[in-house]
């Protein structure tokens, strides 16, 4: 739809490949910092920190808007812990999120379908939720290979893409969708979306986060998989490339 078209083009995902690598490194640092604090995580305290940054006198309008969006799209406590666990399983334990038929939990597409169905039973704004979910599907498909994968996951993505020939929303799940939420404030701050449209979008995205939080046992995998020897051999070369 026209509102999502204001920020969904692939050209806006990353300004350059170098920036993409910088963003990936920064996200890892964010997760590391979060890991050190995870026993002390307090949602209210986290919000206060973001507010202070938003008021910094040296920030540009884009940075200010990004800070505002981070405040509006704060992850629920349980989702923060899921991000930390996801980072640990992949970067430290060298495991992978099961994909496609190997998943015992719903895909991103199925998760969004469930969310829409739940909202359709409780609200008259079914069309609006449909637009938001359609936009998220499209954006997830574009963003997944560009900014949502750790380097360790690239071969898995390549192998799955070549073997299945299906869209990321059909094989990836809540773990990678949650990573997209980490980047949304920065990405939304760069778009030309009207403020009123952005406010509505953020409200619906917040509802989706709460939906994922409330049913995390259903949508997040409990066990990551250990790749085979061939995959580990690939990583031994790719890690230092």
TrEMBL record:
InterPro entries: Chromo-like_dom_sf, MRG, MRG_C_sf, MRG_dom. It is found in: Nucleus. One of its GO terms (cellular component) is nucleus. The keyword Transcription regulation applies. One of its GO terms (biological process) is regulation of DNA-templated transcription. Residues 54-225 form the MRG domain. PROSITE patterns: MRG. The keyword Transcription applies. Its main location: nucleus. Residues 26-61 are annotated as: Disordered. It comes from the Eukaryota. Keywords: Chromatin regulator, Nucleus, Transcription, Transcription regulation. This is MRG domain-containing protein. It comes from Haptolina brevifila.
